C-alpha cells in the first residue's frame, strides 16, 4: 500500500516535469531546420548554466541538423545496432569529463583506449558526419555537438523521443584512460550510481529514467558472467534473476565476448518494457535489478512500468536534455577547440 501511494506521488512529479514532446511535430522550430528568429530563452529550457543556444547553428551552419539526420539514417539503415551504440557513446563521453567529445580522441592513453571502452562503437559514423560538415561549414561545428545531435536522432529513429538540443560546445584537447573509471559500471549499487549522477548535477529521477536506455542495445557477456557463474563468490547464479532468464543467459554467455539484449522482450523497440522486466526480475545487469530492490528507486520503476510508454519517453527527453549539458566547454573556455578531425586534436597535446 505504501509503495502504491509513493508511486502516485512520483507520477504527479513526472506529470509536472518540463513538457518536452516525444515527437518533432509538436516542437517549436529549432536548431537549423529554420523558423523565425525568437528571443533566445535557452536558460528556461536547460537548467544547467552554460552558454549554449538552441539557435546556435541557424545562421552559421543552417544545414547542421539535416546533415546529421541524413547521415544517421544512412548508417543505421545498414546497421540498426548503431542506434543504441550512439546512445551508449554519449553516456561514456558525458559521464567522464563532460560532453566534450574526449571519448572520440584516438591516441595511446586516451579514454578510447581504456579496457572499459573496448566495446564502444559509432566512431566511424561520427567521423563521416564531421567530414560532410567540413564541406558545408568548415571549422564551425564541433565533434561534441555532432555526437549529441547524432545520438538524439538515432534514438528518435528507434521510436524514442525527440528533444531540442542547445549547441555551441567545444571539443576537449585532452583525453585520459584513467578518467573512464568515473563511468558507472554494471555492478555498482544504487548508492554508488546516485553519487555519480549527483556529481553530474542529476538526480534520482534522472538515474532511473536514463537507466531506461537499456530498453535497447546489448550487454557484453563479460559484464554479467560473475552474476551468472560466481555470484558473491558462491560459484552459483544470482538468485534475484528470473529462473528462465538465468538459464538462457548461462547458455548464451559461456564466452565473455558474446553479447545479450538488455531488454530480452522488446530489444529493438524504445518503450517502457525495461521497467516491466525489472518488476519480473528480468534485469540483465546487476545495476538494473538493484533499482527494484532499493526503496529510493523502486517506486519510480513501478510507476514507469505501470504507465503508458509515453510517460517514460517524455521524461527520458527531459533527462537527456540535462545530461548533454554536463561539463560542456564553450567558446569562452581556453581549453576547448573545434577539431578538424574528431579522433585527433588540432595540435598534438599528448
TrEMBL record:
The keyword RNA-binding does not apply. GO terms for cellular component: extracellular region. The record marks 88 as: Transition state stabilizer. Keywords: Calcium, Disulfide bond, Glycoprotein, Heme, Hydrogen peroxide, Iron, Metal-binding, Oxidoreductase, Peroxidase, Secreted, Signal. Residues 1-23 form the signal peptide. GO terms for molecular function: heme binding; lactoperoxidase activity; metal ion binding. Residues 51-346 form the Plant heme peroxidase family profile domain. It catalyses: 2 a phenolic donor + H2O2 = 2 a phenolic radical donor + 2 H2O. Its cofactor is heme b; Ca(2+). The active site is at residue 92. Belongs to the peroxidase family. Classical plant (class III) peroxidase subfamily. This is Peroxidase. It comes from Eutrema salsugineum.
